[in-house]
Amino acid sequence: MSTLTETLNVSALSVAFPGRQVLKDVSFSLMPGEVCGLIGSNGSGKTTLLRTILGLQAATSGAVHLNGAVGYVPQKIAFDMDMPLRARDVVGLGLDGNRFGLPLPSLGKRRKVEAMLRAVGAEAFADQRVGDLSGGQQQRVLIAHAMIRRPRLLLLDEPLANLDVRAVADIVGLLHRFARDEGVTVLVSAHDMNPLLGVMDRIVYLAQGRAATGKTEEVVRTEVLSRLYGHHIDVIRVHGRVLVIAAGAADEIPIAIEKHPVHVCEIP
Amino acid sequence: MSFFNLIFAPGFFASAPVQTALVIGSAAAIVSALIGVFTVLRGQSFAGHALSDISSAGGSVAFLLGISALWGFLGVAVLAAGALELAGLRRSKERDLVTGIVLGAGLGLTALLLHLDIGTRSSGGAAISVMFGSIFAVPASMIVPMLGVSGLAVLMMGLIYRPLLLTSLDPNLASAQGVRVSSIGLLHLLILSLAVTLSAMTIGAILSTALLIGPAAAAVQIAHRPGRALLLAGLFGLIATWGGVLLAYDSYTWTPGQAWPVSFFITSLVSLIYVAARLWAKRPVARRTAEA
């Protein structure tokens, strides 16, 4: 940890869209080098929270304080097959894509891009078109794009969605390394917390616009989540995985674990 | 010498209208192909097509007023671009609907104006000229203004090159990097309307999409990096335009006394280039490599 000041402080943040309250009174703060999971089902406000931190979405009330630059990996980017951009071009745009004028060849830029490609393990496919890459490879390129300006805080919106098990482990490992080795604070959203359990220092659990925040083991408990949802929730730990199960119909309250049919249970 | 004459019919290089056509045709082809690359990547081909069709209303007004069609095309295309952007529609389906409706209204206006043109000036050529172009009829005095419009378009493109590329890649990535995505979108449409104006003068309002989309779509099939895509697109546009002008000139000798329209040759060449690029690239619909 380079300093003891918080990288991110979110205090009493509320965001409303016309006719809908998306976030109510959300507070948490993150220290350098922490990995924080932003967990919640689809529509729980994860993307809105990340966009508000980035300043792309106005808050109704509350405040966001940032200490240092922010990198962002948006949700569900599907690169067009026809995009005439190599992986290294996308990473380069992370450095100077917002500048005006034509890009001049620069040795310094080439070195930075090369170093970043190496840092995310993307050298092997650096010269391929981004549209031809697999989902996991595209995530690496996007992370390199976000990290090349050396932000202190990295926000990722569902980077693990639609990846196979091995790619999920690779990306989680990569994020963990950035946090541990370089003190980058990582805030990563996911609808399933399980892939993150091994690396997550903190959790922001969103449900119905409100958030339960703290250390993972403090938050992912039957009492805490039941209070958050306003329903009885069972938190079950089995084989090192966490199952969050709602009493009642399975579709009434979102189950935090998807894609694994064996985990989807109904308790009458 | 006879072989040379077979390709370049006698008098081709000495003809003043041919010289003018080659200059303005090249400018139109290059500007359209360059901005076309971004238009294709942004999935705004339909907006480009609509802008060119709508500009025909401007061309018809210019005929009525007796001024150069350039100013008519330019005025209406820029206004339409502003209107489309002001509608501020983000959902692509909604955007297509509004574009289609504006397009219909624009063409309806063209129908009225062309009717008035024919009534007042008894010039049946107006419709053909506005819709399908009359590159050999452009006076040499238009070279300077058209090169001026081209220069402005290229300058604007150079200025916003990187933010435009980033926004075309993904608007969310761009806005997170502080790019004002909507301003870039508006500038893209403005440059597009300049390109459409130039192409409308060359191959006509409703055909100018061909020079905008065709060379760019062919180039992005082949090129793996943005600079090369732009270079290739410009080259394809030039080949189609020069080839079209040459073939149209030669066609005098095929059907004596009557040349075939340049626009026919240019649009045919553009289509051929696109097909050739697809075959060359041999990119199947899905070629995502396995998870590695």
TrEMBL record, chain A:
Pfam family, one: ABC_tran
GO BP, sorted A to Z: zinc ion transport
InterPro entries, per the entry: AAA+_ATPase (IPR003593), ABC_transporter-like_ATP-bd (IPR003439), Metal_Ion_Import_ABC (IPR050153), P-loop_NTPase (IPR027417)
Any GO MF annotation of the entry: ATP hydrolysis activity
Keywords: ATP-binding, Ion transport, Nucleotide-binding, Transport, Zinc, Zinc transport
Top-level taxon in the UniProt lineage: Bacteria
Domain ABC transporter: 8-233
SMART domains for this protein: AAA (SM00382)
Family stated for the protein in its record: Belongs to the ABC transporter superfamily.
Protein name: Metal ABC transporter ATP-binding protein
Native source species: Acidisoma silvae
Lineage, top ranks: Bacteria, Pseudomonadati, Pseudomonadota, Alphaproteobacteria, Acetobacterales
Automatic annotation (TrEMBL), chain B:
The protein, known as: Metal ABC transporter permease
GO BP annotations listed: response to zinc ion; transmembrane transport
Family assignment from sequence similarity: Belongs to the ABC-3 integral membrane protein family.
Keyword entries, A-Z: Membrane, Transmembrane, Transmembrane helix, Transport
Location in or out of the cell: Cell membrane; Membrane
Species this protein is from: Acidisoma silvae
Transmembrane annotation, as ranges: 21-41, 61-84, 96-116, 122-140, 147-164, 184-217, 229-249, 261-281
InterPro entries in the record: ABC_BtuC-like, ABC_TroCD
One cellular component term from this protein's GO annotations in UniProt: ATP-binding cassette (ABC) transporter complex
SUPFAM superfamilies: ABC transporter involved in vitamin B12 uptake, BtuC
Source taxon at top rank: Bacteria
Membrane topology: Multi-pass membrane protein
